[in-house]
Give the backbone structure.
Amino acid sequence: MVVSQQTYAIELYFDERASAKVRQLWAQVGAIAPSMAERVHSQPHLSLAVLPNADLQVLPKILDAIAQSEFSFEIQFSSVGLFSAAGGVVFLAPVVTTQLLQLHQRVHHHLEEIGADTVAYYRPKAWVPHCTLARELSPPEVLEAIEVVRQNNPFFKARIFALGLVEAPPVRQICCVPFRTESYKL
């Protein structure tokens, strides 16, 4: 019997300018850690929830309903961070705003309503919003990656424009639903 190792994530996606900046940072960190350069990254994002299994009939409908009630909004990346458990993970962290927290809580409320199991690190009161730049780095690679990121202006604004649902590995987008838009300038 083959056991599936698939996981699912609900993600927030950035505008193209911010996504290009994240991809540039991925490439620069990939030059330090060749194992990162070989990995296929998903679209640049913040993960709101990670699920060990998912109802692919229900979740896209929930995301669509949430997206229809949400306007696109701006975040500001303000720091470079590190998770040291399970190998070195270097990430960009946005300023945590009420709007970001409320959206996160709304997603988890809907997940609870359908009885979805979620990974504890992504639940309300435990979640650290982050955009992963590199993972599974050795301690020397972590230090070098942080320095490379620091030298490349990692503090920028990003427009959050959509919710997505992905399956991994390998990364496969199941759906992407845009938020309502209004005129804005970055």
